[in-house]
Structures are given as C-alpha cells and as structure tokens.
C-alpha cells in the first residue's frame, strides 16, 4: 500500500540545487507525485515541496535521509506528520459552447472555483484546494471535453506560529 | 592580494596543503597550466584523464589526504567520470577541477563543451560551476571541507575558462559556512548504552567492520575493542588491513568470495557489531537471510546507510572517531571478563574456519595465483601498499595477501572498476614514497589503463606490476563456466599481446614467469630491484575463485573449493 507524504525541503537558493534534488530522487528510484519550488521570505532560501509515494516508513526515512545528505539541503520537514494546511492549484481548459456554459458555471460554483478566462469555444477554470478536491473537479469535468490541465503540485504550511525552518 | 583566477586556484590549493596535482591539460585550462608552470606547482601528467583521477584516488586512499585532479572541458571532464564514480562508491576524498568553456559560450554546444555539473551530480558528494572569479576562493575552501569531512567523497569544481583570466582581490576564507552541512557527526552517547546491554546479553558476538574504519582512521580503537572483547572479527573488502591479518580471531573478509569461517560466523552469531560498513550486496548474500540469528548493531556516520539494506536493532549514529573511543572506554571500565565469557564461541568459530581455509591445489609446475600472492605477501614488509585491479586476481589478493595495516590494501570495492589498479598504484607510491607498492592485476584489467606504464616510466615511480595472465577475462570466464555452459562469450583474450615487450616499449623492465619454481628462484630478486617493473605471470585459465556464494544464495550456501 503506497502512502503519500508532503515534504517541505528548504534549500540554498543556488544554481544546480534543483538538479541535485531531482537527480537524487530519480537515481534512488523514489516515487514522487509532484514537486514544486519557489522563493521564500528569505531571498537565499528556496522551498521545494515534494509529495512522495512510499511503501513503508523505512522507505520514507530513506527519502529524508538521502535528501538530507545533499549539501545544499538546509532542512526537511514531513508536513504530513504535523498539523498543516495543504493546497494545490489547478487550471483546466474545457471546451464549452453556449449550451454547456450554464452547467459549467454551476459546477464552478459548487466547487468554489473561478472562471478566469472565457472565449466563444472554451472556459478556463481555476481551483485551489486539497488534492482530493482537485481530483474531484477533474473527475466531474471529464464529462466535458477537457483541452488541457495544468496543476502546480501540492504545497503546504504548518498550522500555528512555528515555521518549518524552526521545526 | 591582486591575482587572476588561475593563480587563485593554485594559491588555494597550497593553502589546503596540496602537494601534487594529477592532470591533463587542454584548451580551456591553458591559463591554469601556465600559472602552474610559472609557480612550478608539482604535477603528474598521466596518459589519460582516467589515469589522473584514479591516481588521485590511490594517493588519497594511501595518504588519507584529498586527491586533486585537473582536466580540461568536454572530453577531458568526461574521461574523469569513471574515476569519480569509483571514488564516490568507496568514499574517497577528491577535488576535481575542470575547465568549462567561457561564460558567453556556455549552453551553446560550444567546442569541447559538456555539462559537467549535470553529469557529475549523481556521482559526487557535491559539485560547483564557478562563473564568477569572486566565488572561486569560497568554492575551493568549501570543496576541500566537504571532500574530507564526514563521509568523505569526491567534489567537482567546474570553472568557466574566462574565470582563470580574470583578475580580482584574492582572499582565502578562514572558515566554511554551509547552512546544510557542518561536517560534525557527534552522536548521542545514550545509543551506546543499548549496545553495552546487547553485548552483556550476547553469547556469540562477532565484529564486522568496513571501510568507514579506514576513512576515519580508527583502526587502533577497533583493534582495542576486538581485543578487549576477545571475540572473532571479520571485515568487508574495504576494511582489510584495519586489523592485521593474522590477529587472533580475525577470519578474513566476508561475502561472496569471503572466507568460509567469516560467512559461517555471520550466519551463526547472536550479535553482529557492524562498524563503518554499508551491507553491500557483495557481503550480505541473500539479504533476507543475512545473519538470521543476530541482533544487529550498526555504528555508522551516514544516517542514510542505517536500515538501507539491512535493518539494525541498535544504531549508533555518528563519527567513529566519536563513538569508538566511548565504546572502548565503557568496555575497559566494565568489570566483565569478556574474553573468558566468549572463549568457547571464539574457539568454535576458529575450528569451523579451519575446516575450509583459503586454499589452492598445486598442480604440476603451473603458477597458482594463491601461491604467487602468498609468496609476494611474505616478501613484502608490513608497510607495503598492495593495490588491485578488478576481477579474479582482486579476490585472490583479498584472500591470500596479508594486509597488516589500514590504507595498505587499495581496491575498487564498490564500483569494481577494471583499469583502476595501475594509476591508483602510481598515486599511492607518489603519496607514500617510502612505502613499497605492489599491484596485482589481470591481463584484462591492465589493458584498460596500460598507457600509464609510460607515466610510471617517465617519473620512475617504483610500482611492481604483477599481471595474472590467463588469456581470459577471468571472473567473466568463471561465471560462464559455472552458469553459462562454459561459453566463453567475448571473454577469451586470444591476441598476441606480449606484456614484457609492452613494458619495454614503454620504458620499463619486463619479466615473464611461467613455472611455479620461478616464484622461488626469480621473483624475490625482481621485486627487490629498485624501480618500476612489470612481471607477467602465466596462470592456469580454469582456476576458480572459491569459496563463492552464488547470487541469491545465503552466506552459508557457499560453493567450496573441494566441490569444484
């Protein structure tokens, strides 16, 4: 049974660091669901959010220990094991003629999503939420013609005042 | 101080105590080599970049210092890869400085451009691309710190060509500031409490040590612990020499071609004290059935090695330089009479080991590899460095050569790199000019870097090269005999190569030994002569390395010599 965990990985904001992280994951044959990276409150630190899929706690430890060995990795916290809020953003382009539009607007309302672009032939829907919710809207929209989907992968923050760097 | 990037590299190397560089020049490192020339910085030009990196590796393993390599961009850097991977697998500290095409040319598929950081990422402890000369001193400082601290390893520094030419105000940093790496591996002494309890309960303990003891220079602590306990011990191939061959209770190395005594003891012991080793598939046999009766204690620096291949019941996470002295102290402070407690177990293990020692059958007047290595082992003093290539001769050397001290049995254990031996032996001799160096190699392995014959001749580097010539890629041939219906597919060396003439053509003395008696009559004299020599020894083609644990079998399911 594969379990998913979201790891917040703080790394030095230096060239090559993403290569080091992604290279390690591939050469150790770890399964990752998503990876995303971005700037943080400190200009010298990049935060990489990785959702890994592992078969055992032991394999999870391996992922964390191997990543920790990278010189440019400053800190790793498993946010799935701490109280945390997890979000992902998706944009979905759906083919939509006039007659489909009302239905699509209903779906968008129910999911508290947004329509961010509209043309004669299509709409672009944006939704932020937990991965399960995003999977759900994708499932519902599969009844329509989905032109393309872009997902960011999950990111997370711990609940409460303590940031990952002090955990 | 005002200087250019090339001068800054060499100045920084001096500050790191580097006394020799192995390398090969080329287009983008011309400026670096020009400054090297002007500064008269000691440098060995090898015949191939692979020779340079293995030489730096041999130097590092023999001395414990960081080996340094220079190479040019593109093919020069690419030729280092096998050597970097070899060093990475065996945790050998290297700093490899390569030239990269100039900043404006990066990413344009320029002449002799290759993405060195991209290629070396999976096989280095860390790597850098230096595009701004102002980063150079910090990067070099960090590279040496990273290479030599913690679990040592290779670090690659790729320097854009224009950086070598750029002038700047040079200052070498005093300290290293890395947020994600301190190099400090002090552990939790409470973890050793559990080990003391486990030792107290154990009836059949066995010490199993590896290359971590070598790289942390803790063999004295290890020997004291083994002696204090009075228990049998065994090693991985990387640990050979950490306790002297012949020390009471030492069973030789364990694993696929390890000793019967060591493998049986692992399967029978109730406590396995694993020290600085990583449970490679070569030592565990079928991993699910490894040491089935034992509580496993793992003394290890690298957290990623704990529970990677074999789960540990107790772990002591930290530098052996921290943990072993504490264990030693606690054992010495304890009133227990360990040697008396374990005497029966030790006696039993030694009796089992004596049933099937490493052996060979003398047949006619053929030179038997075991006999040859034993003879050389006997002729060499206790400070001699033995180096091997990879294959059958490597396993025979591990079996029959009596390594007495750490850093004196150098072999490519993890990667198993054919062609490692000759350049590594050369590097070892340069690092330890007062020690004798003997290389055991095969007629397959030696061909992979035989261009370095010319290097040892040019610099009169006194390495005695012993070639086991059986006209076969021996280990491949052994597996083909045993598991592939004796099909010598692409493994026979049918050519008309003549190693004596090759040696002479390269400027070396060459000898050929064909009969067993020549080991007695000619070999001692050849080995005693000063200066490098190639000794081509004709050995039987069908000799197997035994015992052998076939793939997927338990350690106690060895194929023994007698069955073959």
Explain how this protein is built.
The complex is a heterodimer of chains A (167) and B (564). Chain A is α+β, with helices and mostly antiparallel strands and 167 residues long. Chain A has 4 helices and 9 strands, in the order E-H-E-E-H-E-E-H-E-E-H-E-E. Chain A starts with a strand and ends in a 9-residue tail after the last strand. Chain B starts with a strand and ends in a 26-residue tail after the last strand. In chain B, strands 3-2-4-5-7-6 form a 6-stranded parallel beta sheet, sandwiched between helices. Chain B has a 6-stranded parallel beta sheet with strand order 11-10-9-12-13-14, sandwiched between helices. Chain B has a 6-stranded parallel beta sheet with strand order 16-15-17-18-20-19, with helices on both faces. Chain B has 3 domains: 2-169, Thiamin diphosphate (ThDP)-binding fold, Pyr/PP domains (Rossmann fold), CATH 3.40.50; 190-355, 3-Layer(aba) Sandwich (Rossmann fold); 369-547, Thiamin diphosphate (ThDP)-binding fold, Pyr/PP domains (Rossmann fold), CATH 3.40.50.970. In chain B, helix 3 crosses helix 19 and helix 17 (369-379) crosses helix 18. Chain B is 38% helix and 16% strand. The interface between A and B is medium-sized, with 22 and 21 residues.
């Amino acid at each position: 049974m594969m379990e998913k965990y979201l790891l917040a990985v703080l790394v030095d904001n230096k060239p090559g660091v993403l290569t080091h992280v992604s290279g390690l994951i591939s050469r150790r044959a770890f399964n990752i669901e998503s990876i995303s990276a971005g700037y943080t409150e400190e200009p010298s630190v990049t935060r990489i959010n990785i959702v890994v899929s592992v078969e055992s706690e032991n394999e999870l430890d391996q992922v964390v220990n191997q990543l920790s060995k990278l010189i440019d990795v400053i800190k790793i916290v498993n946010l799935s094991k701490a109280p945390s809020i997890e979000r992902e953003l998706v944009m979905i382009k759906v083919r939509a003629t006039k007659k489909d539009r009302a239905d699509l607007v209903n779906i968008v309302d129910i999911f508290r999503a947004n329509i961010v672009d509209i043309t004669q032939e299509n709409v672009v829907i944006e939704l932020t939420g937990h991965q399960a919710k995003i999977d759900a809207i994708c499932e519902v929209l599969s009844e329509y013609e989905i032109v393309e989907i872009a997902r960011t992968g999950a990111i997370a923050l711990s609940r409460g005042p303590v940031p990952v760097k002090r955990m | 101080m005002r200087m250019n990037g090339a001068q800054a590299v060499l100045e920084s190397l001096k500050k790191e105590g580097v006394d020799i560089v192995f390398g090969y020049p080329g287009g983008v490192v011309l400026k670096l080599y020009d400054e090297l020339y002007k500064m008269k910085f000691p440098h060995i030009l090898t015949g191939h970049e692979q020779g340079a990196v293995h030489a730096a590796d041999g130097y590092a393993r023999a001395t414990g210092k960081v080996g340094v390599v220079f190479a040019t961009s593109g093919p020069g850097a690419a030729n280092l890869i096998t050597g970097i991977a070899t060093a990475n697998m065996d945790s050998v500290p290297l700093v490899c400085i390569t030239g990269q095409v100039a900043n404006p040319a990066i990413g344009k598929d320029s002449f002799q451009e290759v993405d060195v950081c991209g290629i070396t990422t999976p096989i280095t402890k860390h790597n850098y691309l230096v595009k701004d000369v102002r980063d150079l001193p910090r990067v070099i400082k960090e590279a040496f710190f990273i290479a030599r601290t913690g679990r040592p390893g290779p670090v690659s520094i790729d320097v854009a060509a224009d950086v070598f030419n750029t002038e700047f105000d040079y200052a070498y940093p005093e300290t290293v500031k890395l947020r994600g790496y301190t190099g400090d591996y002090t552990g939790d002494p409470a973890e050793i409490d559990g080990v003391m309890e486990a030792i107290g309960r154990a009836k059949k303990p066995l010490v199993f040590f590896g290359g971590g003891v070598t790289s942390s220079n803790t063999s004295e602590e290890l020997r004291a612990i083994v002696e204090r306990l009075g228990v049998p011990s065994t090693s991985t191939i990387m640990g050979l020499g950490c306790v002297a061959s012949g020390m009471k209770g030492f069973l030789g190395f364990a694993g696929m071609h390890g000793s019967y005594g060591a493998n049986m003891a692992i399967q029978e012991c109730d406590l396995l004290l694993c020290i600085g080793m990583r449970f490679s598939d070569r030592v565990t046999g079928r991993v699910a059935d490894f040491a089935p009766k034992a509580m496993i204690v793992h003394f290890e620096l690298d957290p990623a090695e704990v529970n990677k291949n074999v789960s540990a019941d107790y772990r002591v996470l930290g530098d052996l330089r921290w943990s072993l002295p504490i264990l030693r102290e606690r054992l010495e402070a304890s009133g227990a009479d360990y040697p008396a407690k374990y005497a029966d177990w030790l006696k039993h293990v030694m009796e089992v080991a004596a049933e099937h020692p490493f052996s060979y059958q003398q047949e006619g007047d053929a030179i038997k590899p075991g006999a040859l290595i034993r003879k050389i082992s006997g002729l060499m003093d206790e400070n001699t460095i033995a180096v091997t290539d990879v294959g059958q001769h490597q396993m025979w050397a591990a079996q029959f050569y009596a390594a007495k001290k750490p850093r004196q049995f150098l072999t490519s254990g993890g990667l198993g790199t054919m062609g490692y031996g000759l350049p590594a032996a050369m590097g070892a001799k340069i690092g330890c000019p007062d020690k004798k160096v003997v290389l055991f190699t095969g007629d397959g392995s030696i061909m992979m870097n035989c261009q370095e014959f010319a290097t040892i001749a040019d610099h009169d580097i006194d390495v005695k090269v012993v070639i086991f010539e059986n006209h076969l890629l021996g280990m491949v041939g052994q597996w083909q005999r045993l598991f592939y219906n004796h099909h010598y597919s692409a493994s026979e060396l049918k050519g008309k190569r003549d190693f004596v003439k090759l040696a002479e053509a390269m400027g070396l003395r060459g000898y050929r030994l064909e009969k067993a008696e020549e080991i007695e009559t000619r070999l001692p004299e050849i080995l005693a002569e000063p200066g490098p020599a190639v000794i081509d020894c004709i050995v039987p083609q069908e000799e197997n390395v035994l015992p052998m644990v076939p793939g997927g079998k338990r350690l106690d399911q060895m194929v023994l010599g007698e069955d073959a």
